[in-house]
Design a protein that fits this description.
Length: about 170
């Protein structure tokens, strides 16, 4: 079947099998490797992306279900001037990562948390990130990173618009 999706600001039209998961579409068809696959069961959150403004675990969404949608992956967060998204900056500054495997999904989930609540408490951050696992950290620095990003203002809960995405 043919699908048309805007991925990181670029319109794409591709032939895909109806059963192809969005995570596999992003990695194998689009060549975007930041969307990691850790479980295929929504248990780890490493595959979290933003679909039409909502954070979604892409391992349980069919690519066909996103036909006509706007999908943003970690690669799509960088602005046209190469500037990192406020959540990416905060993760770096607050040491919110270790091995990095969960980081793309954690960053995308954090954007979702901040889109829903631009000034969350530590508890609300932990609850918002509950479906994203990190096997390396104790989550303290991740929570600090999300709090720090919240201090950057409303931009922390937004993804770049199509015309702003670096190509």
């Amino acid at each position: 079947m043919q699908i048309s999706i805007t991925v990181n600001g670029q319109q794409r039209t591709d032939e895909v099998e109806p059963r192809l998961l969005l995570a596999h579409y992003l990695r194998e068809v689009c060549g975007l490797k930041a969307t990691n696959l850790g479980c295929d069961t929504t248990s780890c959150g490493a595959c979290t992306v933003i679909v039409d403004g909502l954070s979604v675990k892409s391992c349980t969404v069919l690519a066909a279900q996103t036909d006509g949608a706007q999908v943003t992956t970690l690669e799509g967060l960088t602005g046209p001037d190469g500037e990192m998204h406020p959540v990416q900056k905060a993760f770096r500054e607050e040491h919110g990562l270790q091995c990095g495997f969960c980081t793309p999904g954690m960053v995308m989930a954090a954007i979702g948390v901040l889109a829903d609540n631009p000034d969350p408490t530590d508890r609300e951050i932990r609850e918002g990130l509950e479906g994203n696992l990190c096997r390396c950290t104790g989550y303290h620095n991740i929570v600090r990173a999300v709090q720090s990003a919240a201090g950057a203002g409303p931009a922390a809960g937004q993804v770049p618009q199509a015309q702003e995405v670096a190509r």
